[in-house]
Design goal:
By secondary structure, the chain is of the alpha/beta class. The chain has 24 helices and 17 strands. It folds into three domains: about 260 residues, Rossmann fold (3-Layer(aba) Sandwich), CATH 3.40.50.1360; about 60 residues; about 220 residues, 3-Layer(aba) Sandwich (Rossmann fold), CATH 3.40.50.10320. The strands form three sheets. It has a seven-stranded parallel β-sheet with strand order 1-10-9-6-2-3-5, with helices on one face. Helix 3 links the parallel strand 2 and strand 3. The longest helix is centred in the N-terminal third of the chain and has 22 residues. The chain is globular, with a radius of gyration of 26 Å. Fructose -6-phosphate binds next to loops.
């Protein structure tokens, strides 16, 4: 989907192409790169690529590797310059960008090692300026960058040009923004381990490239993409300076495009087809914009906000308001599994069959409780046959400190003769922890123990919510055990495990998450695995009869117009859910300290979860609840 009409071009100051998936976008960009490489090769000239790291370009690199292997695309004549490197890390550190590039691209194609350039993260501070200058010179000597690939940070950074970076900046040593460090915390197994500084090409270096492609996936990027594409150029969002580039294109997926005006409020940029979905989206937006409850919107509110033609089609504001009030009212239910024996014509879930076989899929332990702890409790107490399946162990998110605590306990029990086992396993893990240091990869034994810690937390949490432990199923999907965050690859074995679970349970309803996430995140991979498994069994009778409800994580709850089922929680139920969240002790703040930091930690956000949705329903003139858990109904495309 491409921006065409002039109204759009006024708002969107950078050509932005929206693709159905990250894979589709990556194929387009990889083809552009391949074409240039081949053209240059034919002219006997090298191609100079500017490369990025992080989750975003991984699929692009996989596509380039595929082209190398299957289509004889050669990189022998290619020179590369990476955008940035963490300061203080040498090239072998597992999180260094030099190492990342070797793992994700360099080692899989015929690039000459001497043609690859990554800023030196180990340069002495006094020598940093000269080293950065030499990096700029090397780019110039190579003839300048032909194609620059970029991701974008939630701060609006490109490279590591954080807010405050001007358009003339060149390669230099910079301080990382606190949001950027938080976003990297999982990769470094804790925010405290994330370097504070980096060496990055400047905005000016990037703008000097002849062509720029910026890629972005997932709803987490939607806000910064909209501000970059539609906002005024500002140092507060360095990516906005790309508006000045004559040959820059954004290639993004639908989720990352979600806050562009043409997607979020298309009636503001041109005529729209007033389908029921579009009407719902627009009227709920109008209520938010005017600060009015639904039943108080008047004709002028509609006409002054680009929605006059809706009234032409539908009559007075009064009629549209009532309609929307009823639709929204009917999303509310205290019976997420359906209310047996009740008229269900205006309820989100069917009354029959009862009880339902309800399957809740949680990518890691905690995702379930966080987003739908109250619903878990209701499904159980209302007599449904609930299964909570934890798709991965989540062991990578357990701090070493928690393992040390567990080891001490095991050693004390063994040495006191109470556990009936010797202490050899605990001592082995103790030695392995010592040997790996802060950044080494966890051994199989350490990961096993970390996984057990998360299991015991999941059980404690479920007990708090009234869900008995025999309803919990730990899938331990293999993809997770083989990888690191942002580098996972889902395989057939994962799909087979999911398929086996579905075949054995034949659920009437499935609660899942991961739709619209960054495609390399654990929830997105788990969702993809579910989709593939559902596709395989799409002809089974139970699939025809199964409703899929999507939930979302904290801070990313569904917008009101997207909610098909809203499950309200009383103050007591809400408090109980929070206690359930707090059973996940290994997920507590690892950066406990300042109040500012605490407000950004998901564990510490527990008290805020689900309250924004409740406040919105109240503001729309519906009932005033303590909290609301919300779900969107989803049908897989077969
Ligand atoms: C990486 C880089 C950064 C990332 C950005 C997005 O070399 O320069 O600007 O592109 O932080 O990171 P991901 O892709 O991990 O979301």
């Amino acid at each position: 989907m491409q921006s065409t009409n002039s109204e759009l071009n006024q708002r969107e100051k950078i050509p932005t192409h929206i693709y159905e998936s990250a894979d589709e976008a990556c194929q387009v960009v990889a083809s552009a790169i391949a074409e240039l490489i081949r053209d240059r090769e034919a002219e006997g000239k090298p191609t100079v690529l500017g490369l990025a790291t992080g989750s975003t370009p991984v699929r692009l690199y996989r596509e380039l590797i595929r082209m190398h292997q299957e289509e004889a695309l050669s990189f022998a004549n290619v020179v590369t310059f990476n955008l940035d490197e963490y300061y203080g890390l040498d090239g072998d550190h597992p999180e260094s960008y030099r190492r990342f590039m070797r793992d994700q691209l360099f080692d899989h194609v015929d690039l000459k090692p001497e043609n690859t350039h990554v800023p030196d993260g180990r340069v002495e501070r006094e020598a940093a300026y000269a080293s950065c200058h030499a990096y700029e010179q090397a780019i110039t000597d190579a003839g300048g960058i032909d194609i620059q690939i970029l991701g974008i940070g939630r701060t609006g950074h490109i490279g590591f040009n954080e807010p405050g970076s001007g358009p003339e900046t060149l390669t230099r040593l910079v301080t990382l923004d606190s949001l950027t460090r938080r976003d990297a915390a999982r990769d470094f197994l804790g925010e405290a381990n994330v370097p504070r500084h980096a060496i990055t090409m400047g905005v000016g270096t990037i703008l000097a490239a002849r062509q720029v492609f910026l890629l972005a996936w997932g709803e987490g990027k939607a806000s910064v993409i909209a501000r970059t594409v539609e906002g005024a150029p500002t140092e507060a969002i360095p990516a906005t300076f790309l508006q000045r580039h004559a040959n820059c294109r954004f290639c993004i997926d639908r989720a990352a495009a979600g806050q562009l005006t043409r997607i979020s409020c298309p009636w503001l940029v041109g005529p729209v087809d007033w389908t029921p979905e579009m009407t719902r989206k627009a009227v709920l937006w109008l209520a938010g914009k005017t600060g009015k409850s639904l039943l108080k919107l008047i004709d002028e509110d509609y006409t002054e906000n680009g929605m006059a033609d809706l009234l032409t089609e539908r009559g007075r504001a009064y009629d549209v308001n009532i309609d929307l009030f009823n639709i929204t009212q009917h999303t509310i239910t205290g019976w997420p599994g359906g209310k047996p024996g009740a008229d269900d014509s205006n309820r989100p879930e069917r009354a029959d069959p009862f009880p339902k076989r309800s399957l809740v899929l949680s990518p890691e332990p905690l995702d379930d409780v966080y987003s739908m702890g109250g619903t878990l409790n209701r499904l159980t107490t209302q007599g449904h046959l609930l299964t909570v399946a934890y798709q991965t162990t989540g062991n990578l998110a357990v701090p070493d400190e928690d393992v040390r605590g567990a080891i001490e306990l095991m050693i004390e029990l063994a040495d006191g003769g109470q556990s009936g086992t010797d202490n050899s396993f605990a001592r082995l893990v103790e030695r392995q922890l010592e040997a790996k240091g802060s950044f080494g990869a966890d051994t199989a034994e350490i990961r096993h123990l970390k996984g057990l810690i998360r299991r015991s937390e999941a059980r404690a949490s479920a007990r708090t919510l009234g869900v008995s432990n025999d309803r919990l199923h730990f899938m331990d999907l293999p993809f997770y055990e083989k990888g690191r965050y942002r580098r996972f690859v889902a395989e057939d074995a994962d799909v087979a495990a999911m398929r086996a679970l579905l075949d054995s349970l034949k659920p009437h309803q499935i609660f899942a998450t991961g739709y619209g996430h960054d495609p390399l995140s654990v929830p997105a991979l788990c969702f993809d695995i579910l989709c593939r498994a559902l596709k395989e069994c799409s002809h089974a009778d139970w699939v025809q009869d199964c409703i899929i409800w999507l939930y979302r994580g904290p801070g990313q709850e569904w917008e009101t117009h997207e909610i098909d089922m809203a499950v309200p929680l009383s103050p007591d139920e809400f408090e109980n859910k929070i206690q359930g969240i707090y059973q996940h002790q290994s997920q507590r703040s690892q950066s406990a300290g300042t109040a500012e930091k605490k407000t950004h930690n998901t564990w510490d956000l527990a008290h805020q979860i689900n309250q924004a949705t409740a406040a919105t329903y109240d503001a729309l003139g519906l009932a005033d609840y303590e909290a609301i858990e919300c779900f969107k109904r989803w049908a897989p495309a077969h």
